[in-house]
Design goal:
The complex is a heterodimer.
Chain A lengths: L1 E5 H11 L2 E6 L6 H7 L6 E4 L3 H14 L2 E7 H6 L1 H10 L5 E7 L13 H7 L3 E2 L4 H17 L4 E6 H4 L1 E6 L15 H4 L3 H23 L5 E3 L5 E6 L2 H9 L4 E5 L7 H10 L2 E5 L5 H8 L18 H7 L27 H10 L3 E3 L24 H12 L7 E6 H18 L4 E6 L28 H7 L4 E5 L4 H13 L4 E6 L15 E2 L18 E4 L2 E4 L9 H5 L5 E2 L4
Parallel strand pairs in A: 2-3, 2-4, 4-5, 5-7, 6-7, 10-11, 10-12, 13-14, 14-15, 15-17, 16-17
Antiparallel strand pairs in A: 1-8, 9-11, 18-21, 19-20
Chain B lengths: L3 E8 L4 H14 L3 E5 L10 E9 L12 E6 L2 H7 L3 E10 L6 H4 L9 H7 L3 E5 L1 H8 L5 H13 L3 H11 L5 H12 L2
Parallel strand pairs in B: 1-4, 4-5, 5-6
Antiparallel strand pairs in B: 1-3, 2-3
The chains are: A alpha/beta, B alpha/beta.
């Protein structure tokens, strides 16, 4: 049946039809919808794991027991899952195992622009890379068979433009494979030195076999056109090349970026005049061409930074491009921001007001780094706020009274709790603020182990954050409501003044959650407003300054009351203007 | 046929994803090759968002770049101006008259460029302003702004009215069907 699917739904459909039995993932843009769509199928097990390492190890366990399994993550998630990945390459699989990883060229919603193809090379596992939804579906469906045939995990590499673009997919029916019996095979699955030494040559042989397979697999193909120029390309860049150059060039379209088909590349190169490689991010294909003794035009013409488009290709090839019309006045930027009523705003206001050094983390609350709050000093990766403050205070003990870490509930469970164990164990007076909005927010409201619900919204085990923090050795644990500025300020003052480490749980559910009841909008009484602009310091999208007075947009305000507490003149209240 | 390129732009959270879903479903039903490119994640938190919709016999790129769009449908005035350079000569901008201040304007670091659409008109750009919010409220919900704007686009594309109504039925939840049909009819002027 022909349907318009986003790439991630196409992956989910392909994995489903390919016989998946279990998916375990941690959400991360642009990969999240793969698992969300899989969770709609009731005949497979789906779950949100606490982090990507747990997800991949869970998928490994399912594969070991004899079923087809997968996990999905964003590119930086693969860093977290890298430990099991590298040794899974040695153990191989029992049931097929597919790791979907979504890169984010141009960093639409990420902290770096790393190229996951490097992982496939480093871990010595095959990688497939679709260019649109139809291929995402086909490749995902075929990946399990490839995994079982070559006894290896397979990485399916997506990127934002494939993951979040829709194109037409002709879907089919699910074929659930027979369960593969579990056999105890110590030499294959126990990777201690003696056994691992014996597995490594098998990995090298497997890569040779896969390199042979790459030469005539269904994932790579040549499309002949003009032969003055030959372009080797993969992923979404293929479509930009076709759009910009039509059949004026010949194209070697790579769907399996590791291992690359050496003979196919050499043969293609020998039949075209000039060889060009068009690939976003790193020169992975280009480097292989150079190993093969070729000298293609690649990163000398195309940037390793950001995304391409048909225009990038047209300009590089000296084609005429269209020119648009702009207004003379520049449009002010519109950066993303924390929502009206966001529970993070109150606590951030307090931290910013006290001019504290704030080590931050990954989530919606990273947006507090922007003006006017400017509340953060660092954001590195998941969990780094808690581990980071420990190192900061060990190196600069004098900073203890003016430094805090902030981390979301889901991020804390992901990898903040290990940092907190270190704080308690190695003894630093860190004040860690857990911004508990009772959901994984930025990726679009996924349940997590602190919410008490599973991926399908059914009741599930619930981590008691207070008890967890105490159990790891933090004696001072307290909860505040971030809508209560006075309570937040007291908590921060007292915990900074205290000697040992402490945790402040700033708890209030994300205002966008359906079950959260919002209040009537507030309004400014113009006669009482003295234009002090204090309320503007919150960076609330509902508050603006018009004709010398603060104003609240009633269509945006959810009545959280934080600005009301801030106004020294009692000008903000529940009455109409 | 030549590939047609449409951009749907606005502020994260305004409902542009539903508009592109409706358009995509309609065009697939008409037998076209269709590609739609969306942005999820961080920019959906009140940032500038853009969705590209392209259709024709065979569509390669899901993106629309400078001077390529046949139509830009904007949910907000400033966003129409921001993306205007993507319009091709002879293309058309359909823009909701709503004004949403971005953070630099809210905190007084920049002014909202009130006359920016007139600047574009002065340079020969075809700009049609639509009070979609009033029509949506008349239909029963401010959220139907997206359907009102799609109805204005429908007047340009030459796909029969009934096909749009059928696509709305296939795209929105049954309980919102009537409301959205009403919004579409008000937007279309029928």
């Amino acid at each position: 049946m022909k349907k318009l699917l986003i790439g991630n739904e196409a992956v989910a459909r392909g994995l489903y039809e390919g016989g998946i039995s279990l998916v375990s993932s941690y959400p991360g843009t642009p990969s999240t919808e793969i698992t969300e769509f899989l969770s709609k199928y009731d005949d497979i097990h789906s779950e949100w794991a606490p982090n990507e390492k747990v997800a991949l190890e869970t998928a490994f366990g399912a594969s070991l027991s004899g079923v087809r399994a997968a996990c999905a993550m964003k590119h930086v998630g693969l860093n977290v899952a890298a430990d099991p990945l590298f040794t899974l390459s040695y153990t191989g699989v029992n049931g097929g195992l597919v790791i979907c990883v979504a890169d984010d060229p141009a960093m639409h919603s990420s902290q770096n622009e790393q190229d996951s193809r490097r992982y496939a090379k480093a871990a010595k596992v095959p990688m497939l890379e679709p260019s649109d939804s139809a291929e995402a579906y086909e490749f995902a469906k075929a990946a399990f068979g490839l995994s079982e045939k070559f006894d290896t995990p397979v990485i399916l590499r997506m990127c934002t433009r494939v993951a979040h673009s829709q194109s037409v997919v002709d879907t089919g029916e699910r074929v659930a494979p027979e369960r593969i019996p579990y056999e105890r095979r110590a030499e294959k699955y126990i990777m201690m030195p003696a056994y691992a030494k014996a597995r490594h040559p098998i990995v090298e042989e497997r890569m040779k076999a896969l390199a042979g397979y790459a030469e005539d697999c269904p994932f790579n193909r040549v499309e002949w056109g003009g032969t003055d120029i030959g372009v080797i390309t993969s992923g979404t860049s293929y479509h930009y090349v076709r759009e910009a150059l039509g059949d004026s060039v010949s194209v070697l379209k790579i769907g399996m970026p590791h291992p690359l088909p050496d003979k196919m590349i050499l043969d293609f190169a020998s039949r075209v005049g000039k060889l060009c490689v068009v690939e976003e991010l790193d020169p992975v294909i280009e480097e292989r061409c150079r190993v093969l003794g070729l000298d293609p035009v690649g990163k000398s013409l195309f940037s390793p930074i950001g995304e391409f488009s048909q225009r990038t290709i047209a300009e590089a090839f000296g084609k005429e491009t269209a020119v648009g019309v702009s207004a003379d006045t520049a449009a002010p930027a519109r950066p993303p921001m924390m929502c009206p009523g966001c529970p993070h705003r109150g606590i951030y206001y307090v931290l910013a007001k006290k001019k504290l050094t704030v080590l931050g983390d990954i989530g919606c609350y990273t947006l507090g780094a922007q003006p006017p709050l400017n509340a953060l000093d660092s954001t590195l990766c998941m969990g780094a706020s808690v581990s980071g403050i420990h190192g900061f205070l060990k190196a600069s003990p004098d900073a203890a009274k003016k430094t805090v870490a902030v981390i979301g509930d889901s991020t804390f469970i992901h990898s903040g709790v290990t940092g907190l164990i270190n704080v308690a164990y190695n003894g630093s007076p860190a004040v860690v603020v857990i911004l508990d909005n009772s959901i994984t927010g930025m990726t679009g409201h996924q349940q997590n182990p602190t919410t008490g619900y599973d991926i399908k919204g059914d009741p599930a085990g619930k981590v008691d954050l207070e008890a967890l923090c105490r159990a790891v050795g933090i004696d001072r644990v307290r909860v505040v409501d971030p809508y209560d500025l006075k309570a937040c300020e007291e908590a921060v003052d007292e915990e900074l003044a205290a000697d040992g480490p402490s945790v402040i749980i700033s708890r209030r559910p994300c205002v966008l959650l359906k079950y959260v009841k919002t209040n009537a909008p507030l309004a400014v009484r113009p006669d009482k407003c003295r234009s002090c602009r204090r309320c503007m310091g919150l960076g609330c999208p509902a508050i603006s300054f018009k004709e010398g007075k603060a104003r609240i947009d009633a269509t945006l305000c959810v009545g959280c009351g934080v600005c009301e507490q801030l106004c020294p003149f009692g000008a903000i209240g529940g009455d109409a203007e | 046929m030549k590939t047609v390129s449409i951009m749907i732009v606005g502020v994260g959270g305004q409902g542009s994803l539903l508009a592109s879903k409706l358009l995509g479903n309609l065009l697939v039903g008409e037998g076209y090759d269709v590609k739609v490119s969306e942005v999820h994640g961080m920019s959906q938190r009140g940032g500038s968002v853009v969705t590209y919709v392209r259709y024709g016999d065979r569509v390669f790129s899901p993106l629309v770049t400078e001077g390529e769009a046949d139509y830009i449908v904007s949910f907000e005035k400033l966003e129409a101006a921001r993306w205007a350079p993507c319009l091709r000569p002879g293309g058309k901008i359909i823009v909701n008259t709503q004004q949403i201040d971005p953070m630099p304007v809210i905190i007084g670091k920049a002014d909202y460029p009130a006359g920016i659409l007139d600047e574009l008109r002065a340079k020969g750009v075809s700009v049609e302003e639509v009070d979609a919010l009033s029509a949506a409220l008349e239909a029963g919900s401010a959220k139907a702004v997206n359907i009102v704007l799609m109805a204005r686009l429908a007047r340009e594309l030459g796909i029969p009215y009934g096909k749009w109504i059928a696509a709305i039925g296939n795209t929105v939840a049954p309980k919102f069907k009537e409301l959205n049909e009403r919004a579409f009819s008000l937007g279309y002027g029928k």
